[in-house]
Amino acid sequence: MLHRVIAFLGMILLFSSSAVAEKRVALVIGNSAYLHTVTLTNPKNDAADMVAALKKRGFVVIEGFDLNKAAFDSKVLEFAATLRGADAGVFYYAGHGLQVAGQNYLVPIDAKAEAAETLEFEMLRVDVVHRIMERLTNTNILFLDACRDNPLTRNLARSMGTRSSEIGHGLAQVEAGVGTLISFSTQPGNVALDGTGRNSPFASALVREVSSSNDDLSAILIAVRNDVMRETQRKQIPWEHSALTGRFYFNQPAQTAPAAALSHPESSEPERAWTAARDTTSIPVLEDFVARYKDSFYAGLARARLEELRKVDDNQKIADFTKAIESSPNVAFAYANRGRVYFYRKDYDRAIPDFTQVINLEPKNSFAYHFRGLSYHRKSDFDRAISDFTKAIDLNPKDQFAYNNRGNAYYGKLDYGRAIADFDQAINLDPLFPAPFTARGIAYEATGRRDLALRDYQAALALPEKYEDGKWAHEAARAHLSWLKP
């Protein structure tokens, strides 16, 4: 939570500073020294020259050369941490890449690509970096010089047999989200040339333009495309997909904010903070804004923005898990995660079949019974909910959540005795869990036992807001206390 607050406060401080200097962050990776396929001559040089060009333009640059999978992951995590509060992010990768079933992968130097099921563990999916960037910054640019002819794809094709048709030539087309541009060294489905000099044709042209051009990014990419087409006799045509919302300049200097914009004697603190935060795509920043200014008009705007961003995020997750299911229909993990997304979107009719599929594949998966039970409960199908919670308890007798939720289902059936018994058990398993205290108080109140209800509400308020139900437990306890007290 601390890092979220720091990111949010950092935005406010940036807004109130007398000199508004943009923070722009880049991750540059060059992989040449592959262990299980041919070494590439140029990517390490390409990346080194791109590092120099971006530093010249004032970027904070994270660089990595000849990275294995663990080192690659570590650099991406470092990039994500540094991106927080940045105005723009750039990702440049040179090295091997491949596409399988429409999904693009970047290849660390230790990858073997001997089986499709190992891809997620051996390689890095482009969309992982893509989504991280879009969550943390408003302007994102990805350069992928990863379309070189890759012998590892032939190894993978042999292992996949009849499914080898899922392996595409070069990289697959990717659509950019709002505020993002993705640039490929050649058109989708084609391979790029590594080059005979120090750099690949794409990297040579790109580094030259980034280092010296005063034009915006669109003009730079047109110049790069023309240079590469000329050098390769039109065998390679750089390609991009853009959803940028404004012009981007690599040479953009820090700008001094007008004095009038910095003095807001008539503006409230929430208004000034909202001016700084309103264009963010970071869900944690907006959550912190709502928590800090929850009683202001601007908190309502932040909540609406949060809902919009969460829908976009959820849609992407559903699409990703659906692709995973299509490629591996007998793996429960993707069904379980897609079911959870549907559940939290309150789409219970879609959540229930996914959790049912998990149960079919893994009959002892208490998680799936529990979430299917919650879905049935939300639909007021209390009997099926009770059946699923009972199965979850049979599989895990120490599951306080299952007891608490089965108690809620019994309460829904007006079976207060069984509800209270389940709340008792949940409290015995975790005496610091406030939700069953409040729920048991409500059940006691329904049976006319006012003294026991008051006791439980007071007990709930004395406990921390533990687990997701903690906030509800406190709010409901306060409300019921105000109704019961004279």
Overview of the molecule:
Mean pLDDT is 81; it is low at 1-6, 12-20, 161-167 and 254-266. 56% of the residues lie in helices and 10% in strands. The protein folds into two domains: 22-242, 3-Layer(aba) Sandwich (Rossmann fold), CATH 3.40.50.1460; 305-484, Tetratricopeptide repeat domain (Serine Threonine Protein Phosphatase 5, Tetratricopeptide repeat, Alpha Horseshoe), CATH 1.25.40.10. It is an alpha/beta fold and 486 residues long. The chain contains 21 helices and ten strands. The radius of gyration is 27 Å and the shape is elongated.
Query: Helical proportion?
Result: 55-70%
**What top-tier CATH class of the largest domain fits best?**
Alpha Beta
CATH topology of the largest domain: Rossmann fold
Return residue spans where pLDDT drops below 50 for at least 5 consecutive residues. 1-6, 12-20, 161-167, 254-266
Q: What is the residue-averaged pLDDT?
A: 81
